């Protein structure tokens, strides 16, 4: 899949062969044009109408027309807007994503959407918006499946058509490392995180790597700062160049007064703080949406806390489904 900007001639016209391709792509989407009313006769979309429509789009400040090709064939056109006319809206917009009807159902649409998101992400944009006509449930299902969420309902600027406004936060994937701590009964130590990007969730100690941080060091900063004793766990990081780290429980030389995580009723597993057996090695992986370290404040202002996971579910965890104007 190649995504490239629309190239005009020296006279700012569309090259004739390209206009022929674009007209065929637009004409193949009769159902959408009948719904949107963008063309007088959806059964007779003409090249001059397509040229005029694209010229109107390019006349908008910050607008860009991108062409998607697969094996040399034009399969989709997408129109983006760097800034919405409303100055209170900080996000770029996807104004149109149209896939050739003969090429639909092959994954081109989602690949083009991902490529557009990558362009915005590379430009430092943190989110992207779009609008879907209220009577276009297929488009709404497509975008929500890609992680977009409805944030508003309002008419569009061009024709006053009722639309749902959707938005998606553009997170930057980064390398992560976590460490698993398991007790003899199979209970796994989890921490309860709460941040503005993901919300409340439970996960193994560790997280996304900070600049210059190695996978071996990432889990080390995750342990709460507690006095030495049976509730304290220190991270012993490996030699430079290693990709693993191990943890060990401090000697049980005193009586702990701290509160251990609560185990779900009916479980035979004992509280897993401190870990009573050497944990497994941590390894680098993808992900990491930002940390809220136990013992410190999360970005939401609420402290994170340790928890216990038994029988495949975290105690008190909150289930979170994976998720043009």
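-> sequence recovered:
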């Amino acid at each position: 899949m190649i995504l490239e900007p629309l190239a005009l001639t020296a006279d700012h016209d569309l090259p004739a062969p390209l206009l022929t391709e674009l007209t065929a792509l637009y004409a193949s989407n009769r159902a959408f044009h009948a719904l949107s009313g963008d063309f007088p006769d959806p059964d007779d979309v003409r090249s001059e109408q397509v040229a005029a429509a694209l010229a109107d789009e390019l006349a908008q400040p910050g607008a860009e027309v991108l062409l998607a090709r697969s094996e040399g064939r034009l399969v989709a056109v997408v129109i983006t807007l760097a800034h919405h006319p409303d100055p209170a809206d900080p996000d770029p917009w996807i104004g149109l994503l149209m896939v050739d009807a003969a090429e639909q159902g092959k994954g081109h649409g989602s690949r083009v959407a991902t490529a557009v998101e990558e362009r915005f992400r590379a430009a430092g944009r943190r989110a992207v918006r779009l609008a879907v006509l209220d009577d276009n449930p297929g488009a709404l299902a497509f975008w929500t499946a890609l992680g977009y969420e409805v944030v508003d309902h309002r008419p569009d600027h061009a024709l006053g058509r009722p639309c749902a406004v959707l938005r998606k936060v553009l997170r930057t994937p980064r390398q992560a490392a976590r460490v698993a701590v398991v007790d003899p009964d199979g209970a796994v130590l989890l921490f309860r995180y709460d941040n503005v990007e993901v919300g409340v969730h439970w996960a193994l100690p560790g997280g996304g790597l900070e600049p210059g941080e190695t996978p071996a060091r990432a889990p080390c900063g995750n342990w709460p700062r507690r006095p030495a004793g049976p509730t304290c766990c220190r991270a012993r990081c490996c030699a430079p160049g290693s990709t693993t780290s191990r943890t060990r429980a401090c000697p049980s030389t005193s009586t702990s007064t701290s509160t251990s995580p609560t185990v779900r009723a009916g479980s035979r597993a004992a509280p897993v703080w401190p870990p009573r057996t050497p944990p497994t090695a941590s390894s680098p992986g993808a992900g990491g949406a930002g940390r809220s370290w136990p013992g410190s404040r999360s970005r939401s202002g609420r402290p994170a806390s340790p928890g216990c996971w038994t029988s495949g579910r975290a105690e008190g965890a909150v289930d979170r489904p994976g998720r043009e104007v």
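Residues 108-122 form the longest helix (15 residues).
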